Amino acid sequence: MEVASHFHRVILDSVPHHVAVINSEGTIVFVNQAWIEFAQLHQQKHEWVGYSYWDVCNQDQTVVSALTKMLQKQADSYGYQYHYHTGQQQRWYQMSAIAIDYHGQRFAVITHVDITEQKNAEEEVRELTLLDSLTALPNRRHFTQFFDQEWRRGIRQQQPLSVLLLDVDLFKQYNDTYGHQMGDQCLQRIAALLAQFAKRPGDLMARYGGEEFVLVLANTDTSAAEKIANKLVNAVLELKIPHIAIGIESVVTISIGVATLVPSQQLAATELLQRADKALYQVKKHGRNGFKLAQ
């Protein structure tokens, strides 16, 4: 029996994850070597056997309640993810618990697995799904999520929300004249400039599709939105990207439709976008290289 017990300890000590076993009172009766080494690394030098697991989890009532149900035979397993600060670094862990019955007693085997790399990979994938691959700006999906969020915030706070819908003038002709590679570079230069105009947490500049971009400005009234639109038009002009097909200016220009509303339960969020789109159409219709406020 002693040989078997030693053999089981050797096995558990070879596991790289942190393992602890608690009894029906929540008292730790076993920890493996990985648990001890992690604790020592972070200056936690308890004599773990006999220590309360409730103190390990800082008396987190959600965890305590879930494990108590397991130990009272009301559940067989439990798990959750949490982050842990190690100095300047944040690590993510998956805590899993499984109930076992041994010699008429109830125990829980608890493991803590470092899932930081998995979490980082998930975050990278999430970011890739929300970013436009050409311009590195937020894509339309990201815009939709952000816009809906700001619309709801505007309803709660009754603050104006402005949208600027931007279009690169005669971009098809630019591609026809200079080629698609130069067209991509043109969009990248413009996108890098436009990104500088989303300065606050409630601002977002996104690629709306093709040569269209959209700027969301939270808590921004018509007057402030108009000033930003004017700056955007002039800033793109100052890039001086050659465009011989455009006429007098001979450089790339943009047109902008500007719309501002105080969000309301009686209005659909799309109403603001539709107004900006109509204003943009009017700019394109009457000469481009400018902006117009929605009526």
From TrEMBL:
Q: Which PROSITE patterns match?
A: GGDEF (PS50887)
Query: Recorded GO terms, molecular function?
Result: diguanylate cyclase activity
Q: What's an example GO cellular component term for this entry?
A: plasma membrane
The lineage's top-level taxon is Bacteria
InterPro entries, from UniProt?
Diguanylate_Cyclase, GGDEF_dom, Nucleotide_cyclase, PAS, PAS-like_dom_sf, PAS_4, Rev_trsase/Diguanyl_cyclase
Where would I find the GGDEF domain in this sequence? 159-295
Cofactor(s) needed: Mg(2+)
EC id: 2.7.7.65
Which Gene3D superfamilies would you find in this protein's record?
3.30.70.270, PAS domain
CDD domains attached here?
Answer: GGDEF, PAS
Biological process, per Gene Ontology? cell adhesion involved in single-species biofilm formation; negative regulation of bacterial-type flagellum-dependent cell motility
Recorded catalytic reaction(s): these are: 2 GTP = 3',3'-c-di-GMP + 2 diphosphate
Q: Could you tell me which SUPFAM superfamilies the record lists for this protein? A: Nucleotide cyclase, PYP-like sensor domain (PAS domain)
Q: Name one Pfam family in it.
A: GGDEF
What is the official name of this protein in its record?
A: diguanylate cyclase
